[in-house]
Specification:
The complex is a heterodimer of chains A (354) and B (494).
Chain A (H helix, E strand, L loop, with lengths): L2 H5 L15 H39 L9 H5 L2 E9 L2 E6 H11 L7 E8 L2 H32 L4 H14 L3 H15 L6 H26 L2 H9 L4 H30 L2 H4 L28 H10 L5 H35 L3
Helix pairs in contact in A: 2-13, 5-8, 5-10, 6-8, 7-8, 8-10, 9-10, 10-13, 12-13
Chain B lengths: L1 H17 L2 H14 L2 H34 L4 H7 L1 H12 L2 H37 L2 H6 L7 H9 L2 H20 L10 H16 L1 H10 L9 H8 L4 E2 L7 E2 L2 H32 L2 H16 L2 H20 L18 H25 L3 H9 L4 H12 L1 H16 L3 H6 L23 H8 L8 H30 L6
Helix pairs in contact in B: 1-22, 2-12, 3-5, 3-6, 3-10, 3-11, 6-8, 6-9, 9-11, 13-16, 13-19, 14-16, 15-16, 16-19, 17-18, 19-22, 21-22
The chains are: A mainly alpha (354), B mainly alpha (494).
Chain lengths: 354, 494
């Protein structure tokens, strides 16, 4: 009976559509894994940097006893570290402590190894960075939002618009050191502002301008056309419409993306090298005789301080403290800012829906 | 509006500070000729070449000692075995004696002339300044002694017979040295000695040419104006604050910048594109959600922190890695310098990866779905789809991402300033893989390093602005290229 073959198919017949595990299959698997490894290699490399600086830096920044944070590191000025032996004991003292130590014991001089910038704290650098960021972002936001409003609300497409857009894109690609040179030529030399906070502000502001303009423009474009039309239909002028019905809805978007600008401003060293930064200043920025001097004084800044401590002083156990501590604080600040920007963006995306 | 103004301002002010460079440099070059420095420079080159040969001889000696110590000989035995070699080396060194003393005398003389010319120029400037201020009597009081270059140079030029005599003795001495057969105690180095002999022969062959040049040299031959430009663009030396002559040639810096950037791109392009492909095609949604912000974080790491990491950690680790015995078959290992082009390049790669990643990912994502679907429908596997359909389709985007990454890398300052080693020299490309482990200096690095130290308005200051201007146009060019690639080679998706 032929029913026999129907119930049990020949066992040696293979399914021709079955997935075959041949060389090509393994080759594909291997390549896909290679791609995956490559990706994770990048992540691993970055993790190494974060961990190295995080671990070594937290030794400086945190302490094991109350208040768990090395307050001196955040409240003092950088000073020279003296390492010496006295009566069989090894001392590591900062400049002022060393002088007090000598005065106490009535000795003229103690042979000591000195390491510049390795003692004390980084308060002036933090203050300087905050000042630089605040001032330059104010300038950049005013200029950037103004030009974004013009570009997205008023401008008609024409060859001139194309030229402006091209200029913005190109401006974003200009190396930061060129901005530094330009700032030095225009503000420091030509306007005779010398190395000052003001020169640094303008240089940094011009540097982030493309970022601010592009992101503000996007935020403005995201406001639905209906808002404008409704306002115009009620008889409002164009400027009234923009002021009351467009800008308020674009502000969150503008702020979110300008936080990215902040991270960039805070992180750049090259533009302030010859426009705003000094290696050492005795005074804090607010200790000025006249209020105008405030704008025309150089400041210390975190990135410049890192540059100085990592290139101008030797690497050893005594200097490491300052180097890693500063790098840690700086990295933490910049990463927190960009983390804030990422989180804000996610929240905004979920919240604003038209 | 503002963007154009700023761009215009940047160009204008960089030009304003930089443009003065050319006339000043021309003056500098003219003085070089007028004061006879060029003349003596030719002779100096000759002694310098001899010194190089001498150094290679010394190098050979050190290598032999090392080899003998390794073979188990004591220091004294090694020294004794090299006695013959040492007399040979001394003889070789002494051969140049006459010429060397002549050149050093002449060097003093011509630098004195140059100094006089400088003093004269300064005095002139001072007088002009005073006249402008309206102080005529003071201006007249400033003494200016015009330098009579011809008279000053006459004694220098008169030494030509002495020079020919000195060269003749040098030639004779060297030929004597060459004829002498020398067997090295370490036989493996005999080919190197052969090589050295050949180099000496080649050196001897250049003598008539130099002599001819010196004979035909004229102090009053004009220096054409374009020499100022070509000496900047094609000059192979960047020497500042030297007693002899300052050279501002951009080539060593450009070569350094390019070397570092190429290393960075070689690392960053495969990894960046890999990551983009992985995130957009292969990764689980949760993975992608983690990797993308992570890469954004990497792009937020300030460059100066990366530079610090390179100095404090990476450089030393790479050096230790090259000291591993397992890697000793690579001729360049172990490397000598902690900070070199590779250290900087590796860190720059990390900066370029996020740029390349995000732009490539955008390009991959912008491919319409049906490209992928069509490929799968034809029975292609995932890998085939990625490599044959998706990557080619987004190639223009990927190429422009790479170009923008290149722009970011070549304009980066702090990492190269801290980690590239800062030695101003064109990398020696004959060293094979060792090339990437040489310390270099870059365009961005030199501006950052030297601008703070020079006085406004000097030639050096202007030269740095010219470097900045060059960088500026390079960045614009790269940007333009990236945009053109996107526009021109975009495949029609329809």
């Amino acid at each position: 009976m032929p029913t026999d073959t129907l119930t049990s198919p020949a066992p040696d017949l293979e399914n021709p559509f079955q997935y075959r595990r041949d060389a090509a299959h393994y080759g594909e698997k291997a390549t896909l894994w290679l791609i995956r490894t490559g990706t994770y290699l990048v992540l691993l490399a970055a993790a190494c940097i974060f961990l190295q600086i995080g671990i070594k830096g937290s030794e400086t920044v945190f302490t094991t006893h109350w208040p768990f944070v090395n307050t001196a590191f955040f409240t003092e000025k950088p000073s020279t570290l003296y390492v010496f032996e006295w009566e069989g004991k090894k001392h590591e003292l900062s400049d002022s402590e060393f002088r007090a130590f000598k005065a106490e014991r009535h000795v003229e001089d103690i042979p000591a190894e000195s390491y510049a910038h390795s003692a004390g704290g980084i308060l002036p650098c933090i203050v300087g960075t905050v000042l630089l960021v605040a001032g330059s972002m104010t300038i950049a936001l005013i200029l950037g939002v103004a030009s974004a409003i013009y570009l997205s609300e008023y401008a008609r497409p024409s060859w001139r618009m194309r030229l402006i857009r091209l200029a913005i894109v190109n401006l974003a690609g200009v190396p930061s050191i060129v901005f530094g040179l330009f700032g030095a030529a225009l503000f420091v030399v030509y306007f005779k502002w010398n190395i000052s906070l003001l020169a640094g502000w303008f240089t940094l502001a011009l540097m982030v301008l493309p970022v601010v303009i592009t992101s503000s423009e996007e935020a403005l474009k995201a406001v639905p056309q209906g808002f404008r039309e409704a306002s115009l239909a009620l008889g409002a002028t164009k400027w009234q419409t923009i002021r009351t019905n467009v800008l308020p809805y674009a502000v969150p978007g503008i702020l979110t993306s300008s936080i990215l600008g902040i991270a960039r401003v805070a992180g750049e060293t090259a533009p302030i090298l010859f426009t705003a930064a000094y290696v050492v200043r005795d005074k804090y920025p607010w200790e000025v005789d006249r209020w105008v001097d405030f704008f025309f004084q150089p400041v210390q800044a975190l990135p410049y301080h890192i540059y100085v401590v990592s290139s101008k002083i030797p690497q050893n156990a005594y200097t490491e403290r300052m180097q890693y501590g500063t790098a840690f604080v700086f990295l933490a600040i910049v990463l927190l800012i960009s983390l804030g920007s990422v989180l804000l963006r996610i929240r905004l995306r979920n919240k604003l829906k038209w | 509006m503002i963007a154009i103004i700023v761009l215009g301002l940047i160009t204008f002010f960089l030009f304003r500070e930089g443009a003065e460079f050319f006339p000043q440099n021309l003056q500098n070059l003219r003085l070089y000729r007028k004061a006879g420095l060029e003349y003596v420079g030719l002779m100096r080159e000759q002694t310098a070449a001899h010194a190089t040969l001498n150094r290679s001889l010394q190098d050979l000696r050190v290598r032999q000692i090392m080899a003998m110590l390794k073979a188990g000989k004591t220091q004294e035995e090694a020294q004794a075995a090299l006695a013959e070699f040492d007399t040979y080396a001394t003889q070789f060194d002494a051969a140049v004696g006459d010429l060397r003393s002549l050149v050093s005398d002449l060097t003093d003389e011509v630098t004195a002339i140059k100094e006089k010319a400088k003093i004269h120029d300064d005095a002139l400037e001072q007088r002009e300044f005073l006249l402008k201020e309206g102080k005529k009597t003071e201006a007249d009081a400033v003494k200016t002694a015009t330098v009579d270059f011809k008279a000053e140079l006459a004694p220098v030029l008169a030494t030509f017979p002495a020079y020919t005599a000195a060269v003749a003795t040098l030639k004779q001495n060297l030929e004597v040295v060459l004829e002498k057969p020398l067997t090295l105690p370490v036989h493996e180095y005999q080919p190197r000695y052969k090589h050295f002999q050949n180099a000496v022969r080649a050196y001897l062959k250049t003598f008539p040419e130099t002599e001819e040049k010196l004979k035909n040299w004229r102090a009053d031959a004009p220096v054409p104006w374009w020499r100022s430009l070509t000496s900047f663009l094609f000059g192979t030396e960047w020497i500042t604050n030297s007693f002899w002559q300052d050279w501002y040639g951009i080539l060593p810096l450009l070569a350094g910048s390019l070397l570092v950037s190429i290393i960075a791109l070689l690392i960053a392009v495969p990894l960046g594109v890999c990551a983009a492909v992985y995130v957009s095609e292969l990764a689980q949604p949760a993975e992608a959600k983690f990797i993308k912000p992570y890469l954004e974080f990497i792009s937020a790491i300030p460059s100066v922190v990366l530079g610090f990491f390179g100095i404090a950690v990476l450089g030393e680790h790479i050096r230790q890695l090259t000291q591993w015995h397992a890697l000793s078959w690579i001729s360049a290992f172990p490397i000598a310098e902690r900070l070199n082009a590779f250290t900087a390049g590796a860190l720059l790669a990390l900066m370029a990866i996020p740029t390349i990643f995000s732009l490539s990912e955008d390009a991959l994502n912008s491919i319409p779905r049906h490209f992928k679907e069509a490929s799968y429908a034809l029975g292609a596997t995932r890998l085939q789809t990625i490599l044959r359909v998706l990557v080619p389709a987004s190639l223009s985007g990927i190429v422009s991402a790479v170009l923008l990454g290149f722009g970011r890398v070549i304009g980066e300052t702090m990492v190269v300033l801290l980690c590239a080693g800062n030695r101003i020299a064109i990398p020696d490309f004959t060293e094979g893989i060792g090339t990437v482990f040489q310390p270099v200096h870059t365009m961005t690095g030199i501006v950052a390093q030297e601008l703070g130290e020079v006085a406004n308005g000097t030639l050096h200051y202007r030269a740095l602005f010219m470097v900045g201007l060059f960088l500026f146009f390079l960045a614009l060019f790269i940007n333009w290229l990236a945009q053109t690639v996107v526009r021109k080679y975009k495949i029609s998706i329809g």
